[in-house]
Amino acid sequence: MLRFTVNNQPVEYRLDPATPLLWALRDASNLTGTKYGCGTGQCGACTVDIDGQARRSCRVPIGTIEGAYVTTIEGLSRERNHPLQLAFLAEAVPQCGFCIPGMIMAASVLLKRNADPSEAQIREAMTNLCRCGVYPRLVEAIQRAGRATRGEEVIPAGARPGIDPADAARVVPALVARP
């Protein structure tokens, strides 16, 4: 049995050691924030933090990370208030949103190593692909998150994503059938 820590929780997987970490996370642990993109490690949609390194989880067999610490987008901040999450929203980085969890995880590793990265350092570290082309806003968001991490800026929390259940289904009196 394979044991490692996922989002600060010890986990034991009863899977084939050759199973890619991506599928262990998504299928066995129901952590679906880590996305399947290309399956070849090129796109970065599946990026997670493994022992302080941004790694493409589709290319990491779980048998190779026994005892490791893995952080996924779900483990970054349960309240969705990590400086990167706030900066990505404030700078309107997400469009379709598919690549965003992998980008945030790659950026979180970068900011752990360097809380004040230059544009060139960001472009070198961020090898994730985005079909929507969010790269200019991505650079500003990472720099803004760096300023927040250093205590130089406060990024206001935006509205939480989703629909208020009270607004999801309302009875409109004019549309109610009358007997």
Structure description:
This protein is α+β, with helices and mostly antiparallel strands and 179 residues long. It has two domains: 2-75, Ubiquitin-like (UB roll); 83-149, [2Fe-2S]-binding domain (DNA polymerase, domain 1, Orthogonal Bundle). 34% of the residues lie in helices and 12% in strands. The protein contains seven helices and five strands, in the order E-E-H-E-E-E-H-H-H-H-H-H. Strands 2-1-5-3-4 form a five-stranded mixed beta sheet, with helices on both faces. Helix 3 crosses helix 6. The radius of gyration is 19 Å and the shape is globular. The N and C termini lie far apart (63 Å). The model has no long low-confidence stretch (mean pLDDT 91). This is (2Fe-2S)-binding protein.
Please write out the topology.
Blueprint: E1 2-6, E2 9-13, H1 21-28, E3 47-50, E4 53-56, E5 69-71, H2 73-76, H3 83-90, H4 100-113, H5 119-125, H6 135-149, H7 165-168
Parallel strand pairs: 1-5
Antiparallel strand pairs: 1-2, 3-4, 3-5
Helix pairs in contact: 3-6
Shape descriptor reads globular
Number of beta-strand segments: 5
Strand content: 5-15%
Structural class of the helix and strand makeup?
A: alpha+beta
Q: Give the N-to-C terminal Cα separation.
A: 63 Å
Q: Tell me the CATH superfamily of the largest domain.
A: Beta-grasp domain
SSE pattern, N- to C-terminal: EEHEEEHHHHHH
The portion of residues assigned to helices is 25-40%
